[in-house]
Amino acid sequence: MPAPEPMPGYGLLLRRGYGSLAAAVRGCGDCGWELSRRTWAENAHLGWGEVLLCGLCALAWTALRRAAARRIFRPFGEWCNLQPKDAAKMPESAWKLLFYTFSWSYGTYLLFFTDYPFFYDPPSVFYDWKKGMDVPTDIAIAYLLQCSFYGHSIYATAYMDTWRKDSVVMLLHHVVTLTLIAFSYAFRYHNVGILVLFLHDVNDVQLEFTKLNVYFKHRGGVYHRLNDIISNIGCLTFSISWFWFRLYWFPLKVLYATCYSSLQSVPNIPFYFFFNALLLILTLMNIYWFLYIILFVAKVLMGQMQEVNDVREYDVEDSKKTTAAKKKEAGLQLPNALKEGMHLKNGLVKDKRL
């Protein structure tokens, strides 16, 4: 195999990436649905048994989360005497922290404790690619876990998680991610898929760990400084790592490999435009969420926020007061749903009981 290529800069990525995309467009004389159908039939390898197994695992994740929330997370929140609004959101973060810690640790094992060179030599993800090639068992396990979890996450975002200002974008993110995972497995682009998942999961670990410390800093009617300090440090490291992993390493390692290196190793590689379009959408969503991070930092610097909070979340207390005032003006009684502390979902109440 050739020696690892030095990681490019943004300028080289733009020049070579744009050049490769433009050349591929010019060379694609019969691009269209017919070519896509034929390419799928000739190159995709995805059995119904694999689809069924993934679907069953997605259902298992949902059932496991409900059971964990009911039997572990909620009782633990009550035992810690968390504030009601924190107790309602804590099970979601605890569940996600457990999964992403496991998935990122497994991705770290694959990339740094095996013979896979993908992190240090991203173009190698396409070396020796062949349609229908066998997927190594350790990578197949990672794919099954991630694909089923993101299938579960589409349902969970809509019906189980706290509804936030970016929840619609989050749903789109899960659909894009699930599509990338499934199609990259079918077309045997699993090597680059492991690299993509590794570069994204670390931020979810930091985010949920930080949020848990926010929830636990006021418990039992007492302020706990240690949790406050940890949440502040977690917010700082999360902001830095988001840029480093998703806006620095991801474009220069993944997009460079998929836009440019893929054509160098496999001319006329199948579904070239489709996969790169999805990865570019993922990049745009990473930039979108980074704007929330910048907004948070700006509010802290301007003194508009005195403590770490998720700026994506609706202020439920203010929303209930506003709704109550409107109902009072209209001469209507406040719905029981708001009295019981249900969360907002696009202006509507959403029951958070699992």
Automatic annotation (TrEMBL):
Gene Ontology molecular function, alphabetical: sphingosine N-acyltransferase activity
One Gene Ontology term, aspect cellular component: membrane
Pfam families hit by this protein: TRAM_LAG1_CLN8
PROSITE patterns cross-referenced by the UniProt entry: TLC
UniProt GO BP: ceramide biosynthetic process
Membrane topology listed for this record: Multi-pass membrane protein
SMART domains assigned: TLC (SM00724)
Location(s), subcellular: Membrane
Keywords: Membrane, Transmembrane, Transmembrane helix
Domain called TLC: residue spans: 88-302
Positions of transmembrane segments: 45-64, 97-119, 139-156, 168-186, 229-249, 269-297
Pathway(s): Sphingolipid metabolism; Lipid metabolism; sphingolipid metabolism
Protein name as annotated: Ceramide synthase 1
Organism (species): Calidris pygmaea
Lineage per the UniProt record: Eukaryota, Metazoa, Chordata, Craniata, Vertebrata
